[in-house]
């Protein structure tokens, strides 16, 4: 299995010389099984470059799994070139949206309106199929098994575990570790703490022992208090999760769009320094556009 990063930036694309090393495209990750099955995690602007790389491999069968429907994770989908070419097959997987009462199909149908894009959904030439997922129910993609896991974000966000040939990858999409809304001396604190402990344990069980963990690491611990409740993690929370689940390698992603390459490396080094590696601890990396991981 191979993992390749096509977009690692959070919130909004941020191209330019300040982000040239790690990249300015929003989230998109390619997972290839040894048998060649194509799994794509999120459709941020990075998916456009991935699409261009697929043009020499027609016909394409692509299985796209969306963590959630916020713009930085879907805005590249209308530019995924294989959807315009007959003979290709694209299966788009994602969560039911309790706000609109719609399945994952609404992600494309909203974007592919003349108000926002010059081509309507009915004009697409590929065989496009929508699969709305249930939490914890695995999907088989060729030789891989993909399991959606409910994480914590202001909208339904599914993390995905991909298992194939004895190796595993987990991608959080956007995730803020649960925190107690009550003060310790308030009624309801203990009950709420028990609930979030249960949710945390369920997430950790789903991620346990992965070879590669890719996590939302948007903020520093200093930045986090002003962004609390926005649904994103920190470098420190990512390291703590990786240690707790005994992941082998951690890749921090969803880089804050205002952070330059130099700033990114600086804050990452500061965070890692707070957690001296012990035997059995993961290795820590920054995700970077173009980086390929072989498992």
Automatic annotation (TrEMBL):
SMART domains for this protein: Lactamase_B (SM00849)
Pfam families: Lactamase_B_2
Record-annotated membrane-spanning stretches: none
Residue span(s) of domain Metallo-beta-lactamase: 25-207
Protein name: MBL fold metallo-hydrolase
